[in-house]
Amino acid sequence: MQSINEADHKVVEDIERAGERLARAKDAIGRVIFGQQPVIDLALTAILSGGHGLLVGLPGLAKTKLVETIGHVLGLQEKRVQFTPDLLPSDIIGSEVLEESDTGTRHFRFIKGPVFSQLLMADEINRASPRTQSALLQAMQEKHVTVAGQRHDLPRPFHVLATQNPIEQEGTYPLPEAQLDRFLLEIDVPYPDLEAERRMLFATTGPAETLPDPVMTAEELQALQRLVRLIPVGDSVVNAVLKLVRTARPGPDADDFVRETVAWGPGPRASQALMLGVRTRCLMDGRLSPSVDDVIALANPVLRHRMALTFAARADGQTVDGVISRLCGMLG
Fold first, then answer.
1. Considering the entire predicted model, what is its pTM?
2. CA distance linking residue 46 with residue 280, whole number of Å
């Protein structure tokens, strides 16, 4: 039987090898997506944690290219759906069609929709109707769909990277809070800096486009996802996760600042997302255990879409990011 020390030694070796593999993956993605390293890191964090990501950014910031590149580098079967108001649930999950054989026998055959992929890009998810949004978000949560009473399991792994435009809200259907909570991270996609945009100009307007190199397979990705859950987390980090999430909830025992500014706060799913996220972040860095700094670094993408401010706080110029930063300051 393998001793505890031998088992621990194997986990350490696995973490070190995983850190090297993920460094190569980030480098391969970075050769195609310029100036968005924090976005790349957070998108990989969502996938390695076994969850889904919501990319929020203006048009033309390479969100679609990022998803395609991540799928190619990680060896995932990738599909893309452009969400529009007339998109139906069956356009996402698939539908049954009636077929007739040569002998005249009729039977139903299920035609799979684009949700049957390993990495699905839901482009402008808030432009589809609530009914279609719910069909996708249910599949994200349950990892299967049911059509005509028959269950159809989704591929493994299965991840969704959805996008939203933060400024154009006309003709959109904003995701309800309960559905936003199903995204592990909300990832802000900013403009690239000057040097990154200069590199992008030459790379995308030259005679040949740079193609990423595949670094791993879907099976290897699943092995890394299992490894994430084996990484030990110290009491100080666990306490920081619990303190951050619980202090963000308004209530009779909450801090005066929170009661005055927060209308509703994050639930236990936020704690789970932070715990997985900090483990993944340290694995990507090749470290053996996470720290409180990892909790602070992931606070915004984990909590931003899981809490809302009061009307008085918004009128006073407060922002969710500002409130989260203040809560992180209480961890010290």
1. 0.89
2. 9
